[in-house]
Protein 1
Amino acid sequence: MFGIPNVGADICGFELETTEELCTRWMQLGAFYPFMRNHNDLGHRDQDPAVFSWTAQQIMKQALLMRYSLAPFWYTLHHQAAMTSRTLVQPLHF
């Protein structure tokens, strides 16, 4: 919408503490962002998958595997965006 091809959010938030449920769901959503990263501010509790329960880790692992399976698709979209100056994800209302 704004011509920025590579967008995404800091998975699980950046400044405040997160919950296991929020981080798990956000990781599932983030698997479909063009740009995905999980990181936070210094001085806050770690929020990488290893600090959560085994169940949450397995769910996050599946989300990351889904993302990796989409790598060829994302690669193609990045190439097209670079060649055409369009965004990777097109809005549904155009």
Protein 2
Amino acid sequence: MYAFEDGDGLVVRSVAGAFRIDPRHDATMRRVLPRLDGAHDLSALLGGEPAAAAFYVLRMLGWFAQSGLLVARPRIPAARIAPEPVARDVPLLWLPGRGALADALAGALARTGLAVAGRGGLDEAPPAGAVRVTCLDGPDLDHLDAAARAARAEGAAWFPVFPFGDAVMVGPLAVPESGPCPRCVLLRWLGISPTIALERAYHDHLRQGGWRLHPPVPRPEAADLADDLARAVCAGLGGPRSGGWATLLHRGGGDCEAGPVERHPLCPDCRAATASPPDDRRDAWFDAPLPLASLGARLRDLAAGPGALTRLVPPPRGRASARDPALPAVAVGRFAVPDPAIVTGRQTTWCHGSGACLDEARTVALIEGLERYAGLHPGEHGLVAPYEAVADRALRPTDLPLFSPAQYAEPDFPFRPFDPAEPLGWVPGYDLSRDRPVLVPRTAARYGVDDRLLGETSSGVAAHSARGAALLNGALELVERDAFMIHWLHRLSPPRIDRETIASAASRAMLDAVAAGGYAVHLRDLTTDLRIPVCLAVGTRTDRAAPALIVGAGAALDAATALARAARELYAATLHVTGAWRLGDPLEPGAVLEIDDHAKAYEHPDWLPQAAFLWASLAPAAAEGWRAPARTPVPTPVPTSLAPADDLTALMARLAERGHSLVGVDITPPELARRSLRVVRAIVPGLQPLGFGRRIRLGGRRLYEAPPRMGAGTFAQSEDALNPVPHCFP
């Protein structure tokens, strides 16, 4: 661990994460931290400290241990993983410098059979063709940037090795014209950090000269690390991974993280093209996808190493048991944020997956994480032009829809009305219903884009190995959210689905597990005039032992699969509740501004009456399909069908009955396209979008046209009659 000051106080940092210290206990932690060396017991650590301070220290030590900042075992001797001789042609390594780490590494590399030169001093000039190795004794990030640029300017390959707090970063190999560089790997590392804002503060601290405060690696430790480092250097120089492989070697435990590193879209030196080229062929949207296992095998290395784009983590201990073989396996991960600067405080970067087995669940979690990463990816800026200049080939923003005149008139409303003469960013999409390319507002395609036009969410973004399969999932998600928002805004009570008549054993098992965990389970038919089945699954409780309300929803072309998807989401919601959960004070409606606020509000039973109309109806659902077996026994976000083209065609036909088209935008970053993953934003102009806080868009016609077509007897006929209460959709 390493402690440093930033503008807001003391931060304790490790490669496992970082914590900000409560200013009230700053002095106590400064006394305790130097004693965390394995030689002091609790009495020595806390002797003489006031009770409140000692309790705080114990709590922080618990968090440190849970997060991996404390290691209660000696370092595994490096000799057990000594590098094997290199059986391939590797060019000369030029390794100048006389620091402890450089000396130890040079000796270990020589023992592998590699030719190492440059030990005479920094004044010697490296010979042509040599790989320049910069091995530092401290994390001088600016020095690394300068060395990388100098090597690039001279057309030389370059390889970094440097201490990075309680670890050593090895690689990646920077090859002229191909990257990546140290800044790429540090941006990747920052994006996958569990504490991005504090990790960014650490990087800033180093660049402001704080690296000088890091004690250099002692020579005995350097000697102990040398063989591990040499092995990592050989891996970074080798074979097909050349130019994109890095290892983070933990100094305290003998463990390492190794994996590929892609060029980062925000790196000023290695910035790569960040969007797939548009494909104007209709057939490109109807390709057959890969089987899930094959896709997972191609993506798995993206979850490894310091440059990971997503990372699987042990799932929290939930209140529902996952040991019943009828229940799906569940996996949990975190996804990387492509632009770490957007994270300024608490981050929500979790991704989840479920499947028939743990491998399938992990693959689904990995795909969901990469989908979120792609949605936040900055992409190419593309064309910038006013709508009036591209109207003949562009999607009109007001058709999405946008906000209402009354919303724009609200004081301090954060969005502005659409002006057809104002320049907008556009990205290429494809209108499958009209069979033609179409320009789409960039802010409608990427939900990480800062905009004042519509404030898009992740709804409609999906990933698969084929565009059509991803588009199908994304479009069904839009149908699901449209159905929920129409029911919520009009306070419509949907008909009841009888749990006892469900044919699917998997769906029954998941719902039974939710009920066994203390929830009353409510199933409702949210299907609208689109005639695409939508199911809402709700769990409620008032005992304050867990969140008062949890929600799952699903849409599909058959009712039983929609129900199965809703049941899976509801079951997964119970697994996310850990023993550390505590009920907070009820939120005021005006405090519900962001996506997390909506779920947090309905954790409190005081909010249940606001949503009770959703499960109040006793009228039975009419469709017999709710009782049929689901086509997909264990539903996942990734269709298991290898022929989704028929489903996509059927979906477009049902949308067309109500005058809606289907537009797809491929937002796949190049690092995912190379591994056969496609990430697509589905857009169905006119559907009612999901929104949070003040970002609920009320400017569309469908909001008022759908309820009478659905046969609703009572519904809001004007905006001021709509439900003003924040919704419960998570």
